[in-house]
Amino acid sequence: MTAETVSGYFSSPFPRRRSVGVDVGGVMVGGDAPVVVQSMTNTDTADVDATVAQVAALHRAGSEIVRVTVDRDESAAAVPKIRERLERLGLNVPLVGDFHYIGHKLLADHPACAEALAKYRINPGNVGFREKRDRQFAAIVETAIRYNKPVRIGVNWGSLDQELLTRLMDENQAKGSPLTAQQVTREAIVQSALLSAELAEEIGLPRSRIILSAKVSQVQDLIAVYTELARRSDHALHLGLTEAGMGTKGIVASSAAMGILLQQGIGDTIRISLTPEPGGDRTREVQVAQELLQTMGFRQFVPVVAACPGCGRTTSTVFQELAQKIQEDIRRNMPVWREKYPGVETLQVAVMGCIVNGPGESKHADIGISLPGTGETPAAPVFIDGKKAATLRGPNIAADFEKMVADYIERRFGQGRAAAE
């Protein structure tokens, strides 16, 4: 991903937190780079065909980094095959290996896996226990140094370092005004990340190859933990609400938590961890992450389609169907459009349902249509670049407008634009 300069890229009253930039397989995380979208497969990594197909789908949907589970010899052996297959497809997406318990052994036993991955993810809560913990953590870090790979130190409160938590609980209990158990747990999460990063640097891993994350499943805990982590560190930060849930619950919770942090300038890369519906599309989490960043004005990924919510003046479903059709067409075509029509992601389309706000909203868009509402004359004015360009009538209004949108994209962003210049 190339560095992106967008006018008004960060419109928050808070300055963006300055973090150390990390190169993850050619994708910059932190520093001056825009917030990066990433995701994770839920296939068995040992199943090369299924994993390649899902990584490709996630990347084509807009995931700039994709994480895969590496939990046993078979999955570690599959990683270089997955990398090779993706490259043959022309997909240069960085792969992150998610390691728990035996990561040190898998990386040592499968050097091709260590080389093929763009980043390693370590969980300090289960990288090893008691006297083995530091030794096994060090083994992974040393492998990262050997292969010039960055590491994400990912704390998760579901597998928090119990020795650290117990020590902090005991120290807190001895105080005259002890903190709550929730507050101590938050501090343990922050300390686990910072102490692990400090140890990695002592071993020799530079700060420019370290990313931190601190996953919890409650909105207020996430905000509190990352606010403190950002205050006490300049490491690049990966945001994500773990176990966020399914459907609207997961979307709302993740957006609420990460929206507040992003608005305060905290966060260099994000993942929306949605539980998919049975047989559901894994790329949904990528779309939600993009929409969060785009809605907040931090990045542009796809053209915006504005549509009115409908009311008693818009009993016709034509505007709803047209808005849905255009939105679906945009999502489907974007992988090609990104290459064919540079800048098309900034396009704004309006599909309005009656005369009240329709003409005005359509004028604000690059191209917009105001469809007739209940009792209105069956005519639909179309506005292009703020000026009325046509009035559509008859049974083919929707198809006619779709063609006008396609022609506008070609003229503004395609070869027609290059010829005019």
TrEMBL record:
It is an enzyme of class 1 (oxidoreductase). Its EC number is 1.17.7.3. Pfam families: GcpE, GcpE_C. [4Fe-4S] cluster binds at residues 308, 311, 354, 361. One of its GO terms (biological process) is isopentenyl diphosphate biosynthetic process, methylerythritol 4-phosphate pathway. Binds 1 [4Fe-4S] cluster. Residues 22-290 form the IspG TIM-barrel domain. Keywords: 4Fe-4S, Iron, Iron-sulfur, Isoprene biosynthesis, Metal-binding, Oxidoreductase. Belongs to the IspG family. This is 4-hydroxy-3-methylbut-2-en-1-yl diphosphate synthase (flavodoxin). It comes from Chelativorans petroleitrophicus. The gene is ispG.
